[in-house]
Write a structure and sequence with these properties.
The chain is built from 20 helices and 16 strands. The chain is globular and about 75 Å long. The protein has helices at residues 21-33, 44-52, 70-80, 95-103, 116-132, 159-171, 188-198, 216-224, 241-244, 260-272, 298-303, 309-315, 332-345, 355-363, 369-383, 391-397, 414-431, 442-461, 466-473, 477-486; strands at residues 13-17, 37-41, 58-62, 64-65, 68-69, 86-90, 108-111, 178-181, 206-210, 249-253, 274-275, 284-285, 289-294, 318-321, 352-353, 388-389.
Length: 497
Amino acid sequence: MTASAVPSASPATIIVADDDAAIRTVVRQALTRAGHLVRTTETAAGLWKLVDGGHGDCVITDVILPDGNGLDQVPRIIARRPGLPVIVMSAQNTLSTAVRATEQGAFDYLPKPFDIDELARAVGRALAAAGGTDTGDVGPDATDSPPLADDMPLIGRSAAMQEVYRVIARVVPTALTVMIVGESGTGKELVAQAIHDLGPRRAGPFIAINMGAIPHELIESELFGHERGAFTGAAGRTAGRFEQAQGGTLFLDEIGDMPLAAQTRLLRVLQQGEFTTVGGSRVQRADVRVIAATHKNLRALIEAGQFREDLFYRLNVIPLRLPPLRQRRDDIPALVRHFLDRAVAEGLPRRFVDGAAMAAMQRHDWPGNIRELENLIRRLAALTRGDTIDAAALADGLDETDRRPADSMGVADGADGLASSIEHHLARYLAVFGEELPPDGLYERVLAEIERPLLRLSLAAANGNQVRAARLLGINRNTLRKKLTQRNVEAVPRSTD
């Protein structure tokens, strides 16, 4: 794809630092087409020379350079040239890289490989921010930041996880309320814990409470505490989770299961920053960051009158959607290795997964997501005979409720499954060519492969009636006829029954 041109009376100059000549060339060509002037260098020394010399309106730098680390250059650049935006790009696509980039004051972080249009848009945003706002503030002081290990609690380098990392990196230094949405087993509490551990409240407590695991009549007491005699069985004063979490983070899991009465009290805390215990009258300040999570559709609950709309907007300040495991299949090998290492740490034997078993795991849909995968690996580590987990051992390890026919593994119901199947097929197709590009016209070939069976099956479902088939497809009859000719699909004879 090509970056759209940006008309400008005075073209901006972009400095690009990367030791890969091919990347420098691609970025230079794309940004030149977008109307910018581009100066490139392959070293940290060259980057600093350009910046120190007053060149450039925006900097794009890789993390790993032959003579230094691009991330380490960011604070130095900002100190020398306040207001000069720096975009960091890296093939080290981990949460720690994204967080470090934000902490060092980078304007944006792009994982490699990146879409060239995405890079052009990031440059546009950086130039607009530099021209319209005071960017002298470099963000959180790096000396006050927690040490970041390479082995962060969130694992995965897929495109879906990169977006999660970027959102986390942006919200970590703030006190904003975060709403984590995702299917059961996707790791919502892990994300909440990471936001707490990397943020300014990390010295305070992290308190988690699951709304779905507490009887409705006890939720208010659990959240806000109660006084002696507040209800039958209240023999003494008990601190609630808000009080326990003072100075830290309160994670409200499965917020969709909270009863309306408790929702009203929670809204007051979020609006006014204060609460009272059940049966008490003393107002207490709530010095707590709230992170909520749910696997439910809260908007549907709002329509059904089961969730307060005003509370939804208070909680949904920063939405963070976690992808299901079937949408990040490339991360499965890394997750498997992590869980195998954890099994060894728990005293189980060291196991290895052969290629066939790993491929089967990547085809599986994992309705229980990461939690299901972790449980399976622990089970296989304990029960597998020998040190290798093969396809047969994998099949034996799956519960009967988890098993699927071999030819259906990887084909999920609905649009997500279709998209995942197409993505998997295309990935295998493109991998055949390696670094070489396949023949031109891939877009049209993919459309043809999808449209042919879609047209045939729609006609068959309509018993050969083209008017009904067109209505089923949501197109008019003339368009259907044109596509039948274009895709060389024969009309199905109409039944005379």
